[in-house]
Design goal:
255 residues, Rossmann fold, seven-stranded parallel beta sheet, alpha/beta, 7 strands, 47% helix, 8 helices, globular
Length: 255
Amino acid sequence: MKRRFELENKIILVTGAATGIGRITAQMMARVGAKVAIVDANYEDGIGTYELIKKESNEASFFKGDVSKKSDVRDFIQEIIRKYGRIDGAFNNAGMEGMTAPTTDCSEENWESTIQVNLKGVFLCMKYELLEMLKQGHGSIVNTSSLAGLVGVENRPAYVASKHGVIGLTKAAAIEYSNRNIRINAICPGVIRTPLIDRLISEDPDFETVRISRHPIGRLGTPEEVAEAAIWLLSDSASFITGAAIAVDGGYTAK
């Protein structure tokens, strides 16, 4: 019997694929048969992800683009369509942390830049992905939110607002297109051991201890664990799941 938990010959777009969760997810998607369209504003690291996938003899292409710019999103979607003819799935993962400060100290510039990338970026990607998926008559989208999309986190007003917005946008669009053979879900990672987190740990030895204490499972997550959730949601194994916001957070938001 053919395994359903795979992406064999599916064209999957991954934004924010240059580093961290995006890079690992793109690699793992390619390993289960996807042809991965890597998208990132960071050309050097984006090409690095492409080369890692090709080194394993898997299929990938790199497209440079800023998800917060309508023209960039429209252009890289059209480039992907020209190359592959369709987009079967998308992992809208590009995002930014923004500054750490209480609401009264959050600058307007930080608010706008964080919302532009984290929320507007997901909106623009969904808009142009959905236009193609409606023509095709099928598709699946997974948006990256955060545990901060499910609960409040102090000193991160713009980030928390943007990630709550991603979940709302996901649910609204899921309802709109559920009868058009298009599924839309969100994943909400906890604190994941990415290069960014490793840097924060190196700067503050207490950072890791404090974050681990907030995860009932007793450790930080790995990019591979987030990738598995995204792959599952994009695969046919999750065919009855849409409009969900799935926590991949070691129990953080269950407390």
